[in-house]
Amino acid sequence: MTEQIEKALQREYEAGFVSDIESDTFEPGLNEDIIRRISAMKEEPEWMLEWRLKAFRYWLDMEEPEWAHVHYPKIDFQSISYYSAPKSMKDKPQSLDEVDPELLKTYEKLGIPLHEQMMLAGVAVDAVFDSVSVVTTFRDKLEEAGVIFCPISEAVHKYPDLVKKYLGSVVPQRDNYYAALNCAVFTDGSFVYIPKGTKCPMELSTYFRINEQNTGQFERTLIIADEGSHVSYLEGCTAPQRDENQLHAAVVELIAMDDAEIKYSTVQNWYPGDEEGRGGIYNFVTKRGICHTSAKISWTQVETGSAVTWKYPSCILKGDNSIGEFYSVALTRGAQQADTGTKMIHLGKNTKSTIISKGISAGRSNNSYRGLVRMNSSAVGARNFTQCDSLLIGDQCGAHTFPYVESRNPTAIVEHEATTSKVSDDQMFLCQQRGLDPEKAVSMIVNGFCKEVFKELPMEFAVEAGKLLEISLEGSVG
Amino acid sequence: MSSWLSSAVTRAEAVSDWLAPQRQASLALLRDAKWPTRKTEAWKYLPINVWDNTELQADAAESTDATSGVIEGLNSLDLVFVNGQLQSVPGDDLPAGLTVVSLADASGDARAWAAETFTAVKPARHLFGLVNDVLATQGVLIDVAAAAVIEQPIRIVNVLTKGYEAHTRVLVRLGEHAKATVIEHYVGDQRSKNTGFAEYKVGDSAYLEHYRFALQSGESLSIGGSHFELSARAELSSHLVGFGSTLQRVDVDVTHAGEHAFAKLNAIYLLDGKELFDLHSTIEHAVPNGTTEENVRGIVADNSRAVFNGRIHIHRGAQKTLAELNNRNLLMSDRAEINTKPELEIYADDVRCAHGATIAEIDKKALYYMQSRGVSRSQAQIMLNFGFINELVDQMPNQVLADWLRPQLRDRFAGMEVK
């Protein structure tokens, strides 16, 4: 058994390779000049630059949060380069043929269906290689439906009114330390607008990838679902192996207008660092959505990567009858640390939220659920159900639960429950007695443990997530 | 820094007795301590500035009524503090195996074990615990010899009257296989401030039955804690009842220091008006094979606010631990507030841990059902509230105490209204 665990723990990171592309990278450092240069590179209008600078000034006065149950050496924000673009992007490619073949190879290794397979898979990909969007496909088909899906840098030029109105409306510039940093230096990301009454004809997907050494990636995603519309958005990421820590401080803002529905799914597999936790991505992400009347936002995440994760996809249930959901599987192994969960802020009447969180800890990792459910005094008849389950594999890991429950309305009902268990000998015995080898048995038990979350994922993602978990758990028989 | 805290530090500098080494250590910590704000996690929901801003004025006309804490029908051994002054220590007619001395008069052996226990059980993280360390010159030391079974409950009464500030300390040691019942009883509704901390060392296979009646109400400000260290196979049955007041906070900490110990913790809080009550509990499972069962229930009415923070910490290697925490709350009004946070911190895989928390209002259907059977709405509500709380009262091993409590709880429910 112990041998198998060792083997699993020593597994090399499968997406760990470095593509050799010349890059246009800023020297490390952070000051107003750098922000001006980023803005200039993007040929941004004056208001955008002002917005960035305002955020930067807030950031200077803010303190790095230390409340999370994670430990890492202090980040030197001056040693990070805040802009990096693949060189061949200078004259933007008009078709796939013009794209740097090295880049395409990278995507192929990651299994992104960027070619014709994509058409069959029905997936439009806004692929972000380091900081500049390379290729956006299916633009036409989406345009037909009136859906806007483009890099946010483009949206700043083409749809300034929408961007001006909604950027920072859910996650304001001074929301938190990393969000403020993101506001100041974000380089690119996705912008989605679904018009009234439209059901987006396909699932939208973005693949993020950190490539350049020492470049933090600061994505900014803004999704607006207008009245009665519907969209499903997929986000997934892997990163090549590095020795130095890389910072990823993204911000995602979702706006669901009356009767709209947004489904946001994430499979996160950034480089987790080596066995000692050296290297690996620091994933400090702010994700938040606002639900207007009868709207629904559903967050689903499968977190298996990153050295340190600090992430709380949240819902502000502002409109009456709105619904927030959070389904999460977080797996940590090696020296990984994850502090993740959600916030459900109930403001409207008859708002509902469901939180299902499954944490799996192995190796010497620490996995924390941190959540907040707040029933404001206006949340008449609101309802929350929370379930947090932890599974421990091995006696050197940790599983923690920090739920905050605040209620100010007597008609609101809040239920929270959490359990902790291990893969039990009985379960293992039963499976093995039926002819499964220990590895398969563990995989099956863990899969069953996560089933409630996996069934919320879109099909393609569910397959990927299941596979990811299986590989990660290889041999970790408890 | 708070002006109250700096005056406390100044006062503490004048304190000098046989506990000086321990007090000095706490004083050093206190000098570096920061006054809590809303951003201080442990004080997030309690407006601690009320403590700082409340001025005390003693009322000479106010007679000290030491009888206000009497529990009828209970034949207990009473140790009474009035405004922090220990009234008397029982003489030589104590049951065999029981030694009680006042902290000020301690000598010889009592000093030796008390010096070892003082600040050793109570965690240093509690700011007001440190205040108590340096200012509590009044206190009692209770020592139960190995294998002694003390049938008579020992009751420590703290009576606070208008304008007084008091700091008292209780140290209890139970020897191997010893058995005892200790009741901490706090009384008073006048504007006063007190900190009352107790540290318990429960020996191998010993059994401690513990009650903390945090029944100060009205304008009183009270912060205190009961802290337990359980040795191998020790058993603790602890029952806390809290009424809110202008400011009230109780910390309960249990450390499983020896294997196969068992801790049962029940707590009830009932708040009305503008009362505040904050309960923090921390269970440290430092060794394998420990068991903890914790049940906390609260009813929060009118404009009041309750805080519960229940932490279970399973240390690395503390395998085969069983720990359960359940917190259920009834919210009675749309101006009342409940903030609850059950925490699990687990570093061992072969454990069974669970916690649950619920917040809801009285079941409207049950209320309707009872009304349809001819029970008045207010009566039905009292019955339902009482039933909710009584489950925990029923679990008190001492029926005299349960019988004494029930009418008081009923009185409190009578004042609460369903909105």
From TrEMBL, chain A:
Organism from which the protein derives: Pseudomaricurvus hydrocarbonicus
Matching InterPro entries: Fe-S_cluster_assembly_SufBD, SUF_FeS_clus_asmbl_SufB, SUF_FeS_clus_asmbl_SufBD_core, SUF_FeS_clus_asmbl_SufBD_sf, SufBD_N
Domain SUF system FeS cluster assembly SufBD N-terminal: 144-200
GO biological process assignments: iron-sulfur cluster assembly
Domain SUF system FeS cluster assembly SufBD core residues, every copy: 208-449
PANTHER family recorded: FES CLUSTER ASSEMBLY PROTEIN SUF, UPF0051 PROTEIN ABCI8, CHLOROPLASTIC-RELATED
Family classification: Belongs to the iron-sulfur cluster assembly SufBD family.
Name assigned to this protein: Fe-S cluster assembly protein SufB
A Pfam family the protein falls into: SUFBD_core
Automatic annotation (TrEMBL), chain B:
UniProt cross-references to SUPFAM superfamilies, sorted A to Z: Stabilizer of iron transporter SufD
Boundaries of every SUF system FeS cluster assembly SufBD N-terminal domain copy: 14-156
Biological processes, Gene Ontology terms: iron-sulfur cluster assembly
Name the UniProt record assigns to this protein: Fe-S cluster assembly protein SufD
Family annotation (InterPro entries): Fe-S_cluster_assembly_SufBD, SUF_FeS_clus_asmbl_SufBD_core, SUF_FeS_clus_asmbl_SufBD_sf, SUF_FeS_clus_asmbl_SufD, SufBD_N
NCBIfam families for the chain: sufD
Membership in a protein family: Belongs to the iron-sulfur cluster assembly SufBD family.
Pfam families hit by this protein: SUFBD_core, SufBD_N
Species annotation: Pseudomaricurvus hydrocarbonicus
